[in-house]
Design goal:
The chain has 2 domains: 71 residues, Arc Repressor Mutant, subunit A, CATH 1.10.10; 41 residues. 63% of the residues lie in helices and 7% in strands. The protein is built from 5 helices and 2 strands, in the order H-H-H-E-E-H-H. Strands 1-2 form a two-stranded antiparallel sheet.
Length: 117
């Protein structure tokens, strides 16, 4: 599924997941309120609430009623493992197939990227 065809709540979930993995929201950190994140992203608060609910259902955040939503210990590692697995099983096969169609040799691509680094 391309990024354009993904539901908005999943795109928002991906942004939050990336922020947790990258340490922007560390373990124990409070996520922005639904309304604040919705305003920041130009999204409907109900859509943001749906994205947040998925994190809560997955046990990656905990809610303190009347206070906020906090990242639980180990959330970044769990998200990283999940994202890695998803990349390998869902995204990589599509990328690999496209590379084959275009005649791109993975070894050449790696060598080129190392030269630019």
């Amino acid at each position: 599924m391309t990024n354009q065809s993904r539901p908005v709540y999943l795109k928002l979930r991906d942004k939050i997941a990336a922020a947790i993995i990258e340490g922007e929201y560390a373990e124990g950190a409070m996520l922005p309120s639904v309304r604040a994140f919705a305003a920041e992203q130009g999204a409907n608060p109900l859509t943001v609430a749906k994205a947040y609910q998925q994190f809560q259902s997955d046990g990656l955040v905990e809610v303190q009623r009347g206070v906020g939503m906090y990242v639980v210990p180990g959330a970044a590692d769990r998200l990283r493992a999940t994202e890695r697995s998803q990349f390998v099983t869902e995204e990589w096969p599509e990328i690999r197939a496209r590379m084959e169609r275009l005649g791109i040799d993975p070894a050449d691509l790696l060598a080129q990227s190392l030269e630019r680094a």
